[in-house]
């Protein structure tokens, strides 16, 4: 790693990682790998009120599953750690003292009750209370009070916060790699709290201190943080760090499948699809959400799908492995407008991965699932099964249900089609065909196919008169894979037994009309 690209994914452990966060992690990772840079995981856990136990582990497990591996991070370590903000308290304290000393921030002693009352009062006048240049001199802070008064309050250990002193009537201009030039009037900002009364930094302060100290070159994050960026730019200036300020890159939102706005947790419940990578049970409410993993998605397929929500490689290629994504990724091709979440497309990607998946690997994945169902089969049988079925399923977890008839007897026949095909006048032909099959020694797909075709020709029968019956007899349905392939995999004995039983069942079924 010899490049100066250092990027970070900085989630807050306030709940399960949303799919939008996963995409941010992915783009950040792709950018790092593309530029032989460093990918950092930083846990932003300074908001103790919003901390949710288990959320940090969830984030790590999700990244692990997706194989988005950080180079530096809480458990991995690195030269510029610690990488968990709650372990960096002393660092923030030092820089808070510095920003105060520079005169760019101040102590504010207003109590939550004072501020609550002011907010209420403003609301009553249909206004918004803002702690800023227009109000600060009438409030209780180290700018409005005399040095003695401030010292007094400090001596009494009165609780205080530290606020950024934002000058009015200025314009903050910064370049964003996606949104280009962004302008923001400081009149729209307030004097943001940098350090809270509990001695913890706020997101804004910890974020810029850490990005600076961790030598972050590019801040890649969701568009919802765009309005925080002017504050961050002011903070870099206030700290005297503007020369090494990172570049900003705000990613477009992932939008609801229909209608307006950002894809939310509720959309998942409403439309019945996952919006989180893994299952999660909220420790407080017991509320459960389903993950893409548990739904049966392949990690690679989910990444491929997500990569293309908001980025396109510029050619028409859609199915790409991670290395191809790394090779092709560029922020220039990240779109400004939000990308709609299309669950059918996500499933399509998964089906592509299953179809193109290595048969040996798929068989290995199916082995424990088959064992759970009590199916005793050889590895070769599973591989043959995968070969026949992989174009017919969307998820690995569908294989055994869709193709159960390879492992147990047929449970039900497609009666509707049976009625159309099981004709009195052809009945005897099926016995002849049975005998023909019984004479085959080398019961392979090719041999069976040749024999059946020869039989059809000799008897002047069409495919449509015979094959559906064989299919329904062997699998119960017309949807299965190649009938000759099915016969080879089931083997001669099972095929014949099954057909014999099926003929008898069909006779019985159709007599009882
Ligand atoms: N902790 C913020 C989050 O939860 C990080 C935003 C950023 O990347 O600056 O998304």
Notes on the protein architecture:
The chain is mostly helical. Helix 17 (427-438) packs antiparallel against helix 21 and helix 19 (463-475) packs across helix 21 (492-511). The mean pLDDT is 96. The chain has 21 helices and 13 strands. The protein has a domain at 410-513: Arc Repressor Mutant, subunit A. The protein has helices spanning 19-34, 55-65, 89-101, 112-124, 147-155, 203-213, 229-239, 265-271, 292-295, 299-307, 322-328, 343-356, 359-372, 379-389, 399-402, 415-421, 427-438, 445-459, 463-475, 483-490, 492-511; strands spanning 6-9, 38-41, 105-108, 161-164, 171-176, 180-185, 193-195, 218-222, 247-251, 254-255, 280-281, 288-289, 339-340. It has a three-stranded antiparallel sheet. It is elongated, with a radius of gyration of 32 Å. The termini are far apart. It binds glutamic acid. Glutamic acid (GLU) is lined by residues 10-12, 44, 203, 207, 221, 225.
Q: Which features would summarize this protein structure in a list?
A:
two-stranded parallel ribbon; binds glutamic acid; 513 residues; 3-stranded antiparallel sheet; mainly alpha; Arc Repressor Mutant, subunit A; 21 helices; 13 strands; 10% strand
